[in-house]
Automatic annotation (TrEMBL):
Transmembrane region(s): 6-22, 29-51, 57-77
Compartments, as annotated in UniProt: Cell membrane
Organism superkingdom: Bacteria
InterPro entries hit by this protein: Transgly_assoc (IPR007341)
Organism (species): Paenibacillus campinasensis
Pfam families, sorted: Transgly_assoc
UniProt entry keywords in alphabetical sequence: Cell membrane, Membrane, Transmembrane, Transmembrane helix
Topology of this chain in the membrane: Multi-pass membrane protein
Primary location class: membrane
Protein name as annotated: GlsB/YeaQ/YmgE family stress response membrane protein
Length: 85
């Protein structure tokens, strides 16, 4: 049950990061979950472990990390689209 809860929270974090940035994450739900997990890892590395914890995620660093990840992915995807034109 803990793993399922982590998937749900990771997906929500990735979805919120996409909403904050105003960009869609490639891959739909799976992309949101991956962005949430990688964003949580990145946020914990950069900002440490503080704030409320839900589903083994420190919400504030995870959300900030996911926003940074969505920004980087959107830059890379945008440059790939421009390179094909």
């Amino acid at each position: 049950m803990g793993f399922l809860w982590s998937l749900i929270v990771g997906g929500i974090i990735g979805w919120l990061a996409g909403l904050i940035m105003g960009r869609d994450i490639p891959g739909g739900i799976i992309g949101n979950i991956i962005a949430g997990f990688i964003g949580a890892w990145l946020g914990s590395l950069l900002l440490g472990t503080w704030g409320p914890v839900i589903g083994d995620f420190y919400i504030i660093p995870a959300l900030i990390g996911a926003v940074v990840l969505v920004f980087i992915v959107s830059l890379v995807m945008g440059s790939m689209r421009r390179g094909r034109s």
